[in-house]
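Class, look over these structure tokens:
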Amino acid sequence: MTNFDISFYKGKRVFVTGHTGFKGSWLCKLLSNVGANVSGYSLESPTNPSLFNIAGIAQDVYSVIGDIRDYKALKEAFDAVQPEIVLHLAAQPIVRDSYKNSVYTYETNVMGTVNILECIRNSTCVKSFVNVTTDKVYLNKEWSWGYRENEELDGFDPYSNSKSCSELVTHSYKNSFFYDRDIAISTARAGNVIGGGDFANDRIIPDCIRAAINNKDIVVRNPFSTRPYQHVLEPLYAYLMIAAMQYQNKKYADCYNVGPDDVDCFQTGALVDLFVSKWGNGISWVNCYDGGPHEANFLKLDCSKLKSTFEWRPHWNLDKAIDMVVDWSKCWIEGKDIRVCMDSQIEAFLKA
């Protein structure tokens, strides 16, 4: 690893948008565990139950509940904490929901990006900003090889397209307002994440867990779609690495793909098979393709740039990631201490 030690964040003022979400909650716990001063701005937790509430993440952060579309409220929260590092995760993240609520999706994912960049533009405290987007920003040609960072951006559905727009907004602000300032700006395009505490609708692992708890068959909408699956701690660690390295040297500011090795680009049906084998109790799944709105069938990333720039490698393979999902979920079902479980998994990840 190129000169990155996560203890870099001890005492740093870090501002996280979307901190009440699944990824945001894990990120706040990770940062808190290494002694960062974490502030968050987000809507209330988007699911019930939610990881943010189950794990008591509010005790780890200065938490402000607000809408990323509300620039005045966002700037007030931002100015109050004067962050050095900003990680932008706030988004409407569900593809199917973007078809139902396209205007809200664009307002949140595009204007939300504009608003946080305006906060940074009108401040003097920030040295490092990472905008978290998605692997779906690319014009998907159903290639068998991974997309590279110089490929065309043109997401198909409103979610994916709004994230393509968020990338373009970030690049424009970087060129227009930050080129000659000491502020490093990157975007990170992550593949599909899994992990304990994801309760979202229309995501395969939460669907698996809900079915297992209720002793029902797992319904799989598209078992032949291929995605780059990774444990949630993988991209979070990469975001923190990028933010820290560019904080210290602006030459690292760029756009990066964050995904697993090719062996962990699984068909959804194969992923569910792996989950079923780990969970036990005789659960099974059924193919219930519903002909729903368009989603990419084959999608994976080329992460050579991240690997060559930072000597980065994934910590856990997909088999290990599913072990962690099952362990977390059974800990929650059995009423054990979720914070202890998360701390244990974070410690194991950092040592891997």
In short: Residues 102-121 form the longest helix (20 residues).
